[in-house]
Amino acid sequence: MQIASEMAETYTISTEERQFYEDNGYLVIKGLIDFTCLYGCKQRFINICKGVVDRGGMVLVKEPSLAAKGAKGEQLINKVSEIHFDEVFSSYTEHPRLLHVLRQLVGAPLRVVNSMLINKPPASARHPPHQDLYYFPFRPAEKIIAAWTAIDDVTIDNGCLYVVPGSHKRNILYEHGNLPDSNKMYHGILDAAVSQERRAQLEMNPGDTVFFHPLIVHGSGPNTTTGYRKSLTAHYAHEDCHYIDVSRTVQEPIAREVEAEAERRGFRLSFADVWQYKSKSIASSGLQSKL
């Protein structure tokens, strides 16, 4: 019997894969992340939901529609965020194969700027079309990238990601706001025409990972099944990125919202300050960060 060898710590993208990312704004790599990492992160999340382990500085987000129905624990928690400081979850955010791909797409040194384990319990809501750059007060966009990895089988029925291929090439950051039929915490693009554009549905198996540009229009559907749909995601920025002033731009509303939430928690921080505190260097060069 042949025994499978351990997964290599690198994944070299092909010329065709790089071109696909440049043209479409996303790239799916099958089986990039190993079972051990996925299982450890999944169990960590379940134990946090049960209150077995201290969540520390991680933030738990509840699904409002399910809270109204009296859901508890794993049936209620939609996500745990700021996981990249946790020793278990960082096995994903600093996974060598993940970082190797990221460095090929946007360069190095890198910072992880935010991270989440996303849980879609049965009957959880859609995430409307949006752009991740809306939340980030730093640039350039070409030096920012997301990684999103399936923990469970991800299908259209349980709310897989969808993207609008090539939408990043418009170089337009759309106005966002709260939309009907979605959680208030989920901001969506207000231009109705964008919501009608052709979508690529990203059905994925555990370990499959999609990388995408911060300007690409994307979202996810509701979970209409009786099972869960869990995934890991993180955003990274090159250390050469710099902060910008978002005053009088489409990002001003989210900046004020984030600053108000920080103040509610007892911190007087600017939009940029919040992101500075949230980010973590994963550079090995020791260069001073501009972020």
Tags for this model:
disordered N terminus; 291 residues; alpha+beta; four-stranded antiparallel β-sheet
Furnish the topology, listing elements before pairings.
Elements: H1 15-24, E1 26-29, H2 35-50, E2 59-62, H3 64-67, E3 77-81, H4 90-93, H5 96-106, E4 110-120, E5 127-130, E6 138-139, E7 144-150, E8 161-163, E9 176-178, E10 187-189, H6 192-195, E11 200-202, E12 209-212, E13 218-220, E14 229-238, E15 242-243, H7 252-264, H8 271-278, E16 280-281
Antiparallel strand pairs: 1-12, 2-3, 3-4, 4-14, 4-16, 5-13, 6-15, 7-12, 7-14, 8-11, 8-13, 9-10
Radius of gyration in whole Å, from Cα?
Answer: 18 Å
Run of helices and strands: HEHEHEHHEEEEEEEHEEEEEHHE
Strand content: 15-25%
- Termini, distance in Å? 51 Å
The SS-based structural class is alpha+beta
- The quaternary state of the protein chains shown equals single chain
Low-confidence stretches: 1-5, 284-289
Main sheet properties: 8 strands, antiparallel
What is the total tally of β strands? 16
Number of helices: 8
